[in-house]
Amino acid sequence: NAGVTQTPKFQVLKTGQSMTLQCAQDMNHEYMSWYRQDPGMGLRLIHYSVGAGITDQGEVPNGYNVSRSTTEDFPLRLLSAAPSQTSVYFCASSYSSGSGANVLTFGAGSRLTVL
Amino acid sequence: GQNIDQPTEMTATEGAIVQINCTYQTSGFNGLFWYQQHAGEAPTFLSYNVLDGLEEKGRFSSFLSRSKGYSYLLLKELQMKDSASYLCAVRDSNYQLIWGAGTKLIIKP
């Protein structure tokens, strides 16, 4: 069981460039999500998915796109990178998003710097 | 608005006990989580409270008072490896997680 696998671990972009952060999980989790973590702030939800073919916006979705064509994969696309998107990005998954202790399993994180 | 408050940083001594507080104001409540995050790593799950009272799990315990909008994480017999950030998160009425900024715990020998 690899859990949640994120790539790349580090990336430097120039303003205006686009890129995709990859996320894959092998736990058959229905719920997948992307967060960004910035100093002095709590984790902020970018986009999430409750199952294949279903995605929704979180708290800070602007500048990001997602898709969920399979249960396993949930890539995050930066359309035109801006310095404000410099952050650490975490992909996380759980069995569901409803009641109960639906514990999130996080990927190792992707540190993105936009110059 | 929704808000989770935690102290930014705390220092404790190896072998001692430390209590990390979390107060919250959210639109609804469907559970409170504590996660541990070592520097440069991913958060990992520690505890979950949905009813008032104390949940004990080894050296770690978590307490919840829904009427006061308050929780704490109690760490006993502190070890150097407990140096980490501790994140409090509340699941609101829409089943979305609202995260605190985390408490950085420094353990000194």
Structure write-up:
The complex is a heterodimer of chains A (115) and B (109). By secondary structure, chain A is an all-beta fold. Helix content of chain A is 0%, strand content 48%. Chain A has strands at residues 4-7, 10-13, 19-25, 31-37, 44-51, 54-57, 64-66, 76-78, 87-94, 105-106, 110-114. Chain A contains no helices and 11 strands. In chain A, β4 and β5 form a beta hairpin. Chain B has 109 residues and is mostly beta strands. Helix content of chain B is 0%, strand content 57%. Chain B is built from no helices and 11 strands. In chain B, strands 2, 4, 5, 9, 10 and 11 form a 6-stranded mixed β-sheet that branches. A 5-stranded antiparallel β-sheet of chain B has the order 1-3-8-7-6, with no helix packed on it. Chain B starts with a strand and ends with a strand. The interface between A and B is medium-sized, with 20 and 24 residues.
Summarize the structure.
The complex is a heterodimer of chains A (115) and B (109). By secondary structure, chain A is mostly beta strands.
Descriptive labels:
heterodimer; A: 115 residues; 11 strands; globular; B: 109 residues; mainly beta; 6-stranded mixed sheet; 5-stranded antiparallel sheet; 57% strand
Low-confidence sequence ranges of chain A:
none
Oligomer: heterodimer
Q: Which spans of chain B have pLDDT < 50 for at least 5 consecutive residues?
A: none
The arrangement of helices and strands of chain B along the chain is EEEEEEEEEEE
Mean pLDDT of chain A: 95
The portion of residues forming beta strands of chain A comes to over 45%
What's the Cα radius of gyration of chain B? Answer: 13 Å
Specify the biggest β-sheet of chain B. 6 strands, mixed
Structural class of chain B: mainly beta
Strand content of chain B: over 45%
**Count the helices of chain B. How many?**
0
What is the N-to-C order of secondary-structure elements of chain A (H for helix, E for strand)? EEEEEEEEEEE
Q: Report on the biggest sheet of chain A.
A: 7 strands, mixed
Overall spatial form of chain A:
globular
Largest interface: A-B, 20 and 24 residues
Instruction: State the separation between the terminal residues of chain B, measured CA to CA.
Output: 40 Å
What general outline of chain B do the C-alpha atoms trace?
Answer: globular
- Quote the distance from N terminus to C terminus of chain A: 36 Å
